[in-house]
Each structure stands twice: as structure tokens, then as C-alpha cells.
Amino acid sequence: MCGFAHRVPLAKDPLPSHNNDACALQEDAERLAELSKALLATHKDVQALRSTTLEARERNSSLEAIRERLQASLRAAQDELAQAEAKQQDLARQLEAEQKGSQEVQTMA
């Protein structure tokens, strides 16, 4: 509340609304100070959010790089597994051929 509100203008006062104008200006100044504080707080919140967003982007980039390396390792492991399975099948065929050859030799004898 304005400090001038209790003053009653004098009959000779050339501008009776002057006190009301001063009161309104003071109230506006107080409201502006409140808004300024709120704006400053909002600005700080925005800065903190930007910082958090940048950190999250950096972590995301790091995680993305890790994911790509893991996928490359997985593909390499799958290739090695496929090669090992192919080699196992070849060895199984060779063993089977040797066993057949051995049986044929035994049958002849």
C-alpha cells in the first residue's frame, strides 16, 4: 500500500490526482521489482536447463558411441561364430568320410 494514500488533497492543491499518481507509480515500481525478481529466477532456471540439456546431449553422444562399438563387436562375434560353425560342419563331414572309409576298409578285409 502506498504511503500517500492517507493524505487528503487540499482544496488549493492544483493537481489533486498527483498523490494518486505517485501512489500508482510506487505500486508499479514495486510490481516491477517483483517481476524483475521472477524474471531473474526464470533466467537462472533456463540457464540450468540449458546446462542440463547439454550434459544430457554429451551423455547421449557417449552412449551412442558405446552402442556403436557394441554393435560392431556383436557383428564380429557373429561372424566368428558363423566361421566356427562352418569349420565344425567341415570337420564333421571329414570325420564322417573317414569313418566310412574305415568301414569300407574293414568290410574288404
Entry keywords:
1 helix; 0% strand; 109 residues; 83% helix; mainly alpha
Task: Explain this structure.
The chain is an all-alpha fold and 109 residues long. The chain has one helix and no strands. The longest helix has 91 residues, at 18-108. The radius of gyration is 44 Å and the shape is rod-shaped. The model is unreliable at 4-8 (pLDDT under 50).
Instruction: Work out the strand percent.
Output: under 5%
Instruction: Count every beta strand, where a strand is a DSSP E run of 2 or more residues.
Output: 0
Terminal Cα span: 123 Å
Average pLDDT number: 86
Q: What is the helix tally?
A: 1
Structural class: mainly alpha
Output the helix-strand order.
H
Our Rg estimate from Cα atoms comes to 44 Å
Oligomer: single chain
Main pleated-sheet profile: none
Helix content: over 70%
* CA-based shape: rod-shaped
Uncertain regions spanning at least 5 consecutive residues: 4-8
Kindly summarize this structure in a few lines.
By secondary structure, the chain is an all-alpha fold. The protein is built from 1 helix and no strands.
Write the layout of secondary structure elements.
Elements (H helix, E strand, L loop, with lengths): L17 H91 L1
